[in-house]
Amino acid sequence: MLAKTLKYSTCFSLLLLICGAIYLPAQAAKNPPTDVLEPAGPLLDPAEENAQPYEYVLEGRPDPFVPFITKKASTPKLNPDEIIDEDVELTGMRQFEPGQLRLVAVLETGKKKIAMVEDVTGKGYILNEGTPIGRHGVVSKINLKQVVVTETAHTRAGKEIKNTIVMRLNKEGEH
What we know:
The protein has 175 residues and is an alpha+beta fold.
């Protein structure tokens, strides 16, 4: 019984398929679709004498076949006069730039001079000649009334730039 049912359903499906194949193209021929676009004007034959060939004008337009990003555009230009910083962990007095410190005292013990400075919070520090201070500075000279810090930096081009900073001892009551 099941075999007969499958046989009839297969035959019926095949019959529907054949009828649809005959009926649908006939309907399409009677009722053409309305969404077909008609050409806007007559097409020009390039063999005609009056026909002008199409020419893409590149002036004022980007070339569509050139990539948008090039190696030259993506590589930043480096300034040769830019100061390069060493990748060094800043510890001790190298954490402070000379402008962040205030000279409060200078002590002289024989031939050696010691400077005392404090930061904005009032914490005190001791400086000796040769003490590194800030990113590029070294205490180069200590006088009775001032401390001289020499900063030495290097540019990308290898040029050495020296800068001298003087920290003056303020009289009592001055800030």
